[in-house]
Amino acid sequence: MMHREVIPRVVAKLLIPFLLLYALYVQFHGELGPGGGFQAGVIVAAAVILYALIFGLADVKRIVPLRLVEILVPLGVVLYAGVGFAGLAAGGNFLDYFVLDPDPVHGQERGIFWVEVGVLVTVSSTMTAIYYAFAGRGR
Amino acid sequence: MAIARLRNLFALVALGGIYSFMMALALLALDAVDVSMTEASVGAGISTVLLLGTLYLTHIHEAPPTRLALFPLAMSIVTGVALLYGVAHLPPFGDPSTPMHRHVAPRYLNDVVRETGVPNAVTAVLASYRGFDTLGEATVIFTAGIGVMVLLRRRRRAPRDDKQGTGS
Amino acid sequence: MIDLTGTIEPVRAIHGGVVVLMVVGLYVLVARGNLIKKLIGLGVFQTSVYLLYIAPGKIAGGSPPIIADGIVTYSNPLPHVLILTAIVVGVATLALGLALVVRIHEEYGTIEEDEILDRDDPA
Predict the structure, then answer these.
(1) DSSP run (H or E) holding A27
(2) pLDDT tens string B140-153
(3) What are the extents of the domains in chain B?
(4) Contact by Cβ (8 Å): C79, C54
(5) Nearest CA in chain B to A125
(6) Of residues B16, A9, B23, the one with CA closest to residue C94
(7) A1 located within any domain
(8) Counted domains in chain A
(9) Could you report the per-residue pLDDT of A3-19, keeping only the tens digit for each?
(10) Is residue A100 part of a domain?
(11) What residues 105-124 of chain B have any CB closer than 8 A to a CB of chain A?
């Protein structure tokens, strides 16, 4: 690993909080401007991968353990499907957002929000898991 | 794009990243802001990292071609001619009266704010009108992730183990 | 089937570009023996399809499909949605393919198609 490379380490440390902040902006501003769960998920994964590239795989696994990633991968899909079943439970169709709130428009907003969160969780954790699988190989 | 000629795979991957950014710019010019953003982050970011990771695990140089690839060349050219014939009949570019702009798109664009309160039509269509698509798509990503983990999780085994044990 | 309204130049350029990219991708995919290069060829092929989908969605004088006051023409959001998911699925399949390549390399010690075939059936 590059333990002596000062500049990449400092730059990465400065950059990663902004990357995560930008991912959150992309996620929650995705309803007003360009962006959404997919893009934000990839940016989160990119932040994790940057950390892993600079500080090594062992360090990043202390912060984002493989166990957590493995739980998050299915959790995102379950969250998405759960929104669908919530619509079902509230008396509508599967993935019907109108019934999630007394105000149908608000229900739509709520449904879209949670679905995008599910996508974010799935994409970011899957990309991180794939990177871990590649990087952990052959060491 | 003479990607086909490069034999050093490292340079090839770098070129692929540049190509992705160019593609993102082209998509931006075509008003597809969301898609452009995804292409820039996914194509130029994640794909490049994964390709480099694979190169690290395998060889960086491609073996020289052993034979002249005439048949694939002929096949590609025939396909290209057929495609040219096909695209020549597509409707003109930028014309608002083509069928695809008259079908469901106006409904999405006219009703999206009233029905969902979300001004970004791409997000609304993605998550709400076509929620099933996106659910299936999240499942595809999930499956791919599981597949990669299954393939690469196991430690390197002894060279002459049974070969059926990878579970793919 | 000839356009009577007068051919617009960009359409030829974009469709020609799509066809060129598709042919290059197909050629790399079929002709090259290196498995990683095959996957990159597949990626080029995919991007040509993205372009083919997105290009007709553009309306001349239109703006990105984010609803705002004072804008009347928007580009078609539907192809954007389809391609957005296609890109992410594309990278997922790329990752799966690369994982297979890594496994093949571990098992055979090479990622050249010919050498793999030779090893499988040493004639």
Answers:
(1) helix A6-28
(2) 888 888 888 888 77
(3) 1-63, 98-156
(4) yes
(5) B145
(6) B16
(7) no
(8) 1
(9) 567 887 888 888 888 88
(10) yes
(11) 114-120, 122-124
